[in-house]
Structure formats: C-alpha cells, structure tokens
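ok new one. same drill as before - structure tokens go in, u give me an amino acid for every spot. 460 of them this time. try not to just spam alanines like last time pls lmao
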C-alpha cells in the first residue's frame, strides 16, 4: 500500500514524535535544551495539526514533532505524508503513543493521490509500520475500502459507466469467491425491474442491476444497496452547469456499497451478503423518460415522474424491493440522493435515516468511535404528503423543495416492508477542497462507521 514502509525500516527512519499541548513541556525537557529553544523560536505549541521539524546537532534533519488531539485521532498524521520531506518515518516511543490503527488510517488517507491520468505530484513520505500485522487487519481493510471509494468516484464517467461498475463488482466477486450476476438492458423489463430501466434507457450504455452474493447461507442475511448513477444530467429536467459539474460522483453510493462489501468479505464478517447496484446513466435522448410520465415499479406501485432529476430514488426502489424479497436481517443503502442533505448537514456529515431507533444509536456510536460521524435525520411521515400524485400512487418529487432529503427517504421507505430493519445514508461522497488527509474529489464518508456498526452487530 502506498505511503508505508516495512516495519524493519524503522531502525533507520526519522523519528515521528506525537505530542499534545499538555505533554509538550515534558517531551521538550526530555529532548534537551536546543530542542526546547527551537520549539519556542518556532512558536510550536503542540496544537493539533501543527508540526515542527527538529534539526539534529549537526544540522541534519533529526525528528518531527506533531501535535495531536488524542491517541485515537486518525487525522493527527493525515497532513504529513504529502508535506514532510520524502523518506521513511517511524512512530517514536517518546511522546504520546498514538494508536497504531488510527495512525495507519490517517497516514494512509493522507498518502492518497488519484494517479490514473497523471504522475503523482510527489511521492508520499512513508511510515514504517507493519500493515500486515493481524491486529491492524481491520484498519488496513477499511483504509483499502476508503481508497477504493475515492478511486471509483474520481474516475470520470467515460471510464466508470454502468459496464465498468459491473466489471468492478465482477472482479471483486472473483477475488473473494463470491457469486456474481447482472441483468442488463431489456432483460430489466422481462425480469421486472421497470423503474431501473426507465431511468437508464436513454443512455447508449445499458442500464443494469449488478448483484453479488457471498457467505454462508446460515449466517444472517445482509443486503447492501448503492445508488449507481454513473452520471446525472438531471434528465429532461436538466441540471444547470454548476449542478452538473461533479455528477460523475453520482455513483458515490455504489462506491461506498462496493467498498463496504469488499471490507466485509476480506475481514470474513459472518453474514450472508447480498450487494445490489442499480447502475445507470441519467441521460437525455429521444427515448428519455419524461416529466409527467407514470412508471411501474417492481413493488407494484405506480409512480408519477414529477422531476427526472429525482432519479436516484427510482433506481433504488426496484433494488430495495428485490432486496426485501430475500427477507434479510438488515438492508443498508447508500446514495448521493439529494442536494437537500448537503444543505441541511453540510458536505462532511452524511444523513442517516432508519426505521429503528436501536440501529440509529448503534450506527452513530460506531461513527463516533471511528471519528467518522453521521447525523440522524427523521423519517417524518407527514411529509410523505409532499409526494402526492393526482394520477399515480405517488410521485417521485413534488412542488415543494422543503425537507428534500426526508421526502426522498420516505419515498424509499415505501419499498422496504414495514418493520424490516433498514438504514439509508444520504452521502455527499466528495471533498470540495483540499484538506489534510481529505483531498479534493471523491471521498468515503461514514464507511468506517458502517463497517464498525456491522462488526458490532454480527461479530459480538
Ligand atoms: N444526484 C442528485 C443529488 C445531489 C446533488 C447530490 C448534488 C449531491 C450533490 C439527485 O439525483 C438530485 O438531483 N436530486 C434532486 C431532487 C429534486 C429534483 C427533487 C435534488 O436534490 O435537488
Ligand atoms: Zn438527479
Ligand atoms: Zn442523482
């Protein structure tokens, strides 16, 4: 994995010494007078995120001090791999003992660059750490999952259409000994996925429902569904240029779902996993679905298309219906579903909806433990009236933009049988600008939280 060196290289690596503001005086006393004077001259206070390069007596590069908030802070080191001089670094016994899993997570996320179309801007500094250590297996798998999410989202639509998403899942299935299948094009009609077909039929790239099944059928069945809209033009109710600019990321939910499935399989979580990705392009052509049309869904509900830009819920509803048919113990879905979620909670806090309070508290607690937060939003039933239709069972959107992420979630809720445990995460999947460990572009959000939540539900 990029950004790491074998643990054996620690012996001749540059020491990386973590400190908090509180532990700094004792650390500097230990490091000696010249370190103390240098820290004072540089105004280094040990504040979280601050770094201080310490020269050795001969003027060579001696050590790095880094301010952290706490031992379990995964962001403590995230800014270092692409800002420190190239070379190998090793966590030092002096100073604060960072949790190695947190260090691995932060260093790994901070080493990421999307290199498909150009050379790395610079090589990442490397941390000497045994990432194959069994005690770090979970952190390493979750790091890999986050990096996979970023790569999938960052890849432009021409190279990450429905077919490429399918190839990604097929390759994953082969690597993990899982069963793979896909229903594409007109077969969606004959196999009764009419809503997925309606959204995807205008693209020259066939819409599809991608499926992976893995695990022991005697284990609890877990269905994971991800919105795979490989590009969202908005359809005939077209998005303006600003709103369309980043819509290659509208398969961010699929990316999260695929990455979560990868982590579950590689860490052998005892579940019977079903991964479902409805993959389409919401394109414009003569045969595009239109506002005012009434479409059928797999569940049997008729849906009036109020706005072709509310396409995610339409492809998801057939996949959710199909997931529920397997009577799983839990259904989880991930989707870049609404702009409203981002307006409500901002870009960094995914919106969690669930029909079960116990799932909400466990999920949120897992997010807190992993420094990977989500925020719960309500399935406020009265707002379902916003989706009223004069001619169909209900509409996919309505005249009001109020509570847009709630009405979207309530739409999905209609397709999950009442009482079946279900979580829905409306996730932005994107960093608008560069921050340490969070480069501009595709991002995994709430992914470590989701896995930890599952780990607690199914392993303990
Ligand atoms: N993919 C978008 C939602 C989106 C936009 C997520 C920007 C993240 C950033 C989705 O398909 C959409 O366009 N939703 C509409 C629904 C509306 C027409 C009811 C929205 O949120 O405006
Ligand atoms: Zn849309
Ligand atoms: Zn969309």
């Amino acid at each position: 994995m990029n950004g790491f060196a074998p643990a054996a290289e620690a012996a001749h690596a540059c020491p990386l010494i973590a400190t908090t503001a509180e532990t700094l005086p004792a650390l500097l006393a230990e490091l000696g007078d010249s370190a103390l004077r240098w820290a004072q001259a540089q105004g280094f206070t040990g504040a979280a995120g601050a770094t201080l390069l310490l020269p050795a007596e001969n003027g060579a590069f001696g050590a790095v001090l880094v301010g952290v908030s706490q031992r379990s802070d995964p962001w403590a080191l995230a800014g270092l791999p692409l800002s420190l001089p190239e070379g190998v670094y090793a966590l030092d016994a002096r100073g604060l003992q960072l949790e190695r899993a947190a260090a691995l997570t932060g260093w790994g996320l901070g080493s990421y660059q999307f290199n498909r179309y150009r050379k790395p801007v610079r090589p990442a500094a490397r941390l000497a750490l045994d990432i194959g250590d069994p005690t770090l297996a979970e952190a390493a798998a979750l790091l890999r999952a986050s990096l996979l999410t970023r790569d999938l989202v960052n890849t432009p639509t021409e190279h990450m259409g429905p077919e490429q998403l399918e190839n990604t899942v097929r390759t994953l299935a082969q690597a993990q000994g899982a069963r793979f299948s896909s229903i594409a094009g007109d077969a969606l009609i004959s196999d009764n996925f009419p809503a997925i077909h309606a959204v995807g039929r205008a693209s020259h790239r066939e819409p599809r429902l991608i499926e992976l099944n893995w695990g022991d059928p005697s284990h609890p069945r877990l269905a994971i569904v991800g919105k795979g809209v490989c590009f969202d033009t908005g359809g005939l109710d077209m998005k303006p240029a600003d709103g369309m600019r980043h819509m290659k990321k509208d398969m961010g939910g699929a990316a999260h779902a695929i990455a979560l499935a990868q982590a579950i399989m590689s860490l052998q979580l005892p579940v019977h996993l079903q991964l479902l990705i409805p993959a389409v392009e919401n394109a414009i052509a003569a045969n595009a679905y239109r506002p005012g049309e009434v479409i059928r869904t797999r569940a049997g509900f008729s849906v009036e298309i109020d706005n072709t830009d509310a396409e995610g819920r339409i492809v998801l509803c057939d996949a959710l219906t199909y997931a529920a048919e397997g009577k799983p113990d839990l259904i989880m879905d991930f989707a870049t579903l609404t702009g409203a979620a981002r307006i409500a909670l901002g870009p960094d806090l995914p919106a969690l909806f669930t029909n079960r309070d116990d799932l909400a508290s466990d999920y949120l607690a897992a997010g807190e433990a992993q420094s990977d937060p989500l925020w719960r939003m309500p399935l406020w039933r009265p707002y379902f009236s916003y989706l009223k239709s004069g001619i169909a069972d209900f509409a996919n959107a309505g005249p009001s933009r109020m509570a847009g992420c709630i009405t979207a979630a309530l739409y999905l809720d209609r397709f999950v049988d009442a009482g079946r445990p279900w979580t829905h995460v409306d996730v932005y999947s994107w960093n608008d600008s560069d921050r340490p460990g969070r480069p501009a572009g595709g991002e995994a959000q709430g992914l470590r939280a989701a896995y930890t939540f599952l780990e607690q539900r199914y392993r303990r």
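The two ends are 29 Å apart (CA to CA). and btw Residues 232, 234, 282, 309, 311 surround zinc ion (ligand 2) (CB under 6 Å).
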